[in-house]
Amino acid sequence: MTVNVGTMTVDRAAELLEEHGDPALSDNPGLQLVALDVVTGLAGVFEGNDEGGPPFAVLQGYEPMTEPGRLFEEDFALGVPWTWSCVHTGPIGQRESGGEPIALIPSTGVELVMEGVTLLRRSGDTIELRRYIDWNLILASLGVTNAIRPGEPPARSSSTTS
After folding, report:
1. In Å, how far from its chain's centre is CA 93?
2. Are residues 52 and 80 in contact, defined by beta-carbon separation less than 8 angstroms?
3. Of 8, 10, 73, 82, which shows the fewest CB atoms inside 10 Å?
4. How far apart are CA 133 and CA 129, in angstroms?
């Protein structure tokens, strides 16, 4: 499980929602902001796949414990479980080799459903988004295996002094 953290001002959040918000997703601006964070934060590596419906969805049956509009009124925290239907379109992990970037996992074109949880917190004029994704599941969906085992503890040296 990894976490990506992003912060923005409340004014910037309002601008983003004005420009890119999706009222069809929800009338709750917090949920819309989470959707924008997922889609834009993973752009270039994953792109939404809208075959069969909207790519981003809040888990069925989830009801946020905050009223729509509260994001712009007071401090609060909101946890949002979500799924995103997407396609792996770009490289994951890059390193330099002779000045050229090399993708550790090149684009595969694999369609998958990503699951995650985003914690959204407003404190004062700052909004923080923490996006949690289990990348081991994503890598397995792409056909990447991770076979590791724990290392052995270092041997203890014993010394005798006389």
Report:
1. 15
2. no
3. 73
4. 13
CB 132 within 8 A of CB 3: yes
Alpha-carbon distance of 84 to 112, in angstroms, equals 8
What span, in angstroms and rounded, lies between the C-alpha atoms of 42 and 92?
A: 10
Q: Which helix (H) or strand (E) holds 29?
A: helix 29-41
Task: Show me where the domains of the chain are located.
Answer: 2-141
For residue 115, the Cα-to-chain-centroid distance in whole angstroms is: 9
**Dist. CA 149–CA 61, nearest whole Å:** 38
Q: How many residues does the chain have?
A: 162
Pairing of strands 100-105, 111-123: unpaired
Contact status, residue 38 vs residue 84, Cβ threshold 8 Å: yes
- What's the whole-model pTM score? 0.75
90-137 pLDDT, tens digit per residue, is 988 877 677 776 768 889 999 999 999 999 888 889 999 999 998 888
